[in-house]
Amino acid sequence: MKLERTKRIRKLAVWTWTWVATMAIATLGPEFIWDNHSFLTPFAIIVNLANGILMILANRDLFNHFDELERKIHLEAMGITLGLTVVVGLTFSLLDQKDLIPFDAEIGYLVMFTGICYLTAVLINTRRFK
Amino acid sequence: MKNKIRDLREQKGMTQEELAEFIGVSRQTINAIEKQKFDPSLPTAFKMAKLFGLPIESIFQFEEK
């Protein structure tokens, strides 16, 4: 069981890191590597998208390997994260539209918020069942 | 839900790790069940009943909260 788990975690880690790497290439490549080449830019974006889909599948594979308590912990964390991301994200966007914050409401902030929120919810939920 | 998992496991001389391996869950799950912080699913309860050779109702006692 542990070996299977480790295998799935490694697989997810590999797809996550390659997704981050291909995202960096697709973002910075057109400007710094291939000078806005008409084929390479959409190609890099498609490769990044394909990589993201494989990362999601690896995550689902790991989730399906969780036992009942781990599933409960992660499902609750996902629910809290989804709710907070929608509510906080829309508030953030509204603040930007009404010029109540001195910077733009970039999607990157929301991604960071989602990650931190999920991690915190998983940690709190794990402690609840210890 | 109250349960006698800790006593039954100790009577069998098993560790939480060994019980978890046998049932197919993590050690943390066994710990949470023993501390009555988490109620196991029906398949897990049946596996435990089979392992300890007892009917489910003598291992788990339902309590209204």
UniProtKB/TrEMBL annotation, chain B:
It comes from the Bacteria. It holds the Pfam family HTH_3. GO terms for molecular function: DNA binding. Keywords: DNA-binding. Residues 5-59 form the HTH cro/C1-type domain. Signal peptide: none annotated. PANTHER family: DNA-BIDING PHAGE PROTEIN (PTHR46558:SF4), TRACRIPTIONAL REGULATORY PROTEIN-RELATED-RELATED (PTHR46558). This is Transcriptional regulator. The lineage of its organism: Bacteria, Pseudomonadati, Bacteroidota, Cytophagia, Cytophagales.
